[in-house]
Fold each of these.
Amino acid sequence: MSESIHKSHNVSVLLYHIVCTAKYRRDVINHHVDSVLRDVCLKLSERYEIHFVEIGSESDHIHFLVQSVPSYSPTKIARTIKSITAREVFSRVPSVKRWLWGGEFWKKGYFISTVGHHGDETQIKNYIKNQGVSKSYQVLHQ
């Protein structure tokens, strides 16, 4: 489970669900490539403020549940993950290159979505909408 990240001027719980697809949607993520990806992600978390909460893989795409800090944009997080994992997979599993020519492991795009930690969109919308309602009600009816 994710935890709040405490920095000098903020506290955050920012979770993202990122899905990256292999170039040409090829079935190149086998057990060996999956273990390389997981190992690279562990090392990536040590170097960057990107924590991998969960990683799930299929033969042609991978899902990451990541937590990061506000200074990292969602785009920066996705680009960092994609570039470093691609370079390392090609380096450690050179046989993948015969299926993915052109030096690219991932498709250009990706899917990213925020993940609620304290409730879904409706709950938070209602919480915000009802802020100060009881105080306003008390002031108006005194």
Amino acid sequence: MSRPLRVIALTHVYPRFDGDPSAAFLGTWAGALRAHGHDVRVLAPHDAGLTEVDVVGGVPIRRVRYADDAHETLAYRGEMHRIALRPPLGPPLLGSFTSQMAMALRRAVRRWRPDVVHVHWWMPGAVIARLALVDVPVVVHLHGTDVGVVEGRPWLRPLAEWALACTDRVEVVSTSLSERASAALGVRADSLNPMPLDLAVLTPAERVLSLDTPTVLAVGRLVPEKGFRELVQAVAGLRRDVRLRIVGEGPDAEVLRLLADELRVRLELPGALPHRELPAEYAGADVVVQPSHGEGLGLVVAEAVLLGRPVVATDSGGVRDVLERHSLVRPGDVATLRARIVEALEDPDLPAVMRAARRVRTALSPDSAVLRTEQGWTEAIRIHGLR
């Protein structure tokens, strides 16, 4: 790219502080772009206890208030699509959220005159951009949950079509998501642009393993679509004693505890951890399992193989770009998931892990993401100029 660009990154979730696991990949993405000279600034919703103007990881952020602290509950919890539709407070809260974010985006564009607005997740980001009526090139980046919302609620497709109609470019994080977006949204992705991994953080830690009790590790939001209930069931049927450790937070925590108690599974739920602590978690795992029903990309699998850990994963979509498809388990298939965990514990396929790690290091490096993003911005500016 011939010159640095001024860019507003519009998102409903972004790391709130250094080490926050909330969409940590966006912090890696924005930081890498700023390191290459681009003036990327983030526009995100406010959350209780935060300042309205901040800098996290060297990236300037403006946070938009849409309610009082007690009611700012839509963002940063991984459940916006559920909370927003839950009466009586959900719909009016969503209305305030979208209108306040749209007004903030319009003000930011008018005052700062960016070259591009880069929207992450069409819902709510593309809706906000359309409501803001900004005359600036717009890139919309689909991540998976935003497509899944329409797959589960087809009546939202007209809203998606309306929101995406005035965008200049649509990008997706995986090959599978491109196919899903075409089917669910009726939109053709212009390019594949997976989010980067923080390679500086993801360095192998010293392994501390128990010779007596293997550890099965999973990482992610504690919500039904992550498949952790099936994972507990799979572990319960193992013929050896293992420790199941699920790193993350969410509404399914108590459900998982009760299920584990019922099935006599040794379950540990340490909550969400800073991203810099994950390498140590991976290092302590004998096998990492991603049992999701659907993933836009599957960054947990990518991180695990990069750190050399054996992985068991479901055929949840985006993970096909990381692992060989024949090795994947059908989502919800507890018996096969259990069998693959046994295989990984007894005879891990380390050559396959090394092959996947090479693909990940090439495709998901920050430098690769910067190059893909720059190319997308250039094309969006060109297309917008033709309108």
Amino acid sequence: MTRRPRDTDVPTVDDNNFRPTGERLDSFYRDLETLLLQQLNDDAKQHAVRLKLLELYFETRRTEDFLKQARTLWAKQGNATTREWQKTISMGMILAPTDPLFRQAQRERVEFVDAAEMPKAPPVRRFGDEARRMRLFEQLAADYQKVRSDPPFLELLDRELIAHARRPSSLMHCKRLSDEIKGAQIFLKREDLSPADTHLTIAVVGTALLARRLGRKTLVTGTTDGRRGVIMASIAARLGLEAVVYMDSDEMHRQSSNVFSLWLMGANLQAVDASTLRNADVREAALEYWGQHPDDALLVLGLDAAPPPYPMMAREFTAAIGRETRRQVMAVTRRPPDVLVSRGGNNADALGFFPPYLTTGCETRLVCVTPKPAASEPAPRRNTGAMDPSRVPMSEQEKRVARSIMEGLEYPAVTREHAWLRSTGRVEDVLYAEDSAKNAIQRLSQREGIIPALESAHALAWALHAAQGMKPEQSIVVMMAEDAQKDLWDIGRKMGVPF
């Protein structure tokens, strides 16, 4: 059985393969480094881009590359009070505390001569990047920092989630399965019984409670198909707040049920003509409203797609799942769980499940299980940057469908968050074979009457194997993340059932 990493463990780095040893992150880190270096080659004064490169080198413990970029940043910026330099100092004091760049007083000017100027290019514009808008995010970050560690606020969030997100989800003891294994006790966190938009709902409710705590009277959001708007309008009505919802005028005709729900709950629905907005993004209209009413309104987002503190807020609000798991396990076993197991991949499950167990001194193992590709499957093609001639631009209808799907995914880009979890040394990332998952599906279905979804079945299979080498008083909690109905026919085909 794999040794459990301790809090004092530091992931080592294989310089040749550019990855933390034992982790399958080389492709992700290499591609990200290439992208960032290309942007800096176009414009060396994109300090925010250089900061991201510094964060990548810090995460992978590439000290020499970190120091080289840190010296370049200082030479080009020449201002010790900037946000980028202050963050660089914080990382440098951990990664290279004896280097003169970080050992001396940080406000003293240090000159370097190896920083060559590079050709300029227009910087890439992203959501919320404008200076006049960044002040909104910076002020919110400062306000949230004062609230985030307040126990009464988290208790209020957990109580509100009972009404708005059907929390807590149940914790089920698989007694027959555990007795058969004769090892650790197997528990299932039944997220498969929760509504499809659970993570989105938790993030919206948390933001709404934060708005009321900060004295704001209005919640504003931009929504593609109306789902986020309906969730926001519901909590706004409960808290006595105003709700302003921006929606594409074309989508309003297609999503008439959500439009009617917004009207019933008293939301102020604003139609946006897509032709008047850059990138046809209704979030821009919502952000503009927030900028015009900074003391009265607060922007509500359910996605990890905005400047800080929104990614942190989403992660810490959804940690309600881990908090309720901790309470449930303690109530049943009178001791913390020995192992938490979640499916891996680009999903948000582990982000809500693991954070309460990341604290120093916690001995609970945290494991992400990803399906192991079959030997017969072709290796994924690497993107060389050249345009594939077989790719055809999406039609307007396909783009509308894609925008709707992205809103429902809740967290479409959590690869960075998973990389951070792994780099802490607390989260193990393992691959497990499909044959074991098939066996786990059969055993859980026949012993407990529950059919797991395919990806959750891989997590269960790993847990069943690990439980065999543990004691009966120990416990493993497996997150059942999705309703198996979406996978039912695929499960049947993989198990050889003739449909």
Amino acid sequence: MRICVFTLGCKVNQSESDSLIKDLKSLGHEVVDELSFCDLYIVNTCAVTGEAEKKSRQTYARILAINPNAKIIYTGCASQKDPESFAKKSDSVLVTGTFNKGEIISLLDKTGLSLFPESKAFEELSTPESLRTRTYV
């Protein structure tokens, strides 16, 4: 499966996306981090500013312009803050918010729309395979 992990926002989002990319590649998926034609899109949203939230919501239209039949998973701060606005998008298959990002891999075959309940538990993700020249602490 060809999967796009598209990241908006901070270095924490980038690190978490890098972990997802590593895990998806280890399962044999072809993974890209820029918007292009894919079977599945994982959008790591941001809500640090109003503009970041707006860009997170606009990603939906950008993806549909590339692939009208796209399946989209939303995760991150903006989808945590307002999950209903992301869930009502007809092509959404999963909305996770900031928690349960580590569960995305195990839920790839899930159909329909799901909203995770908010959890405060510490979530351990795999160590990212850095795509950057600087590493994360």
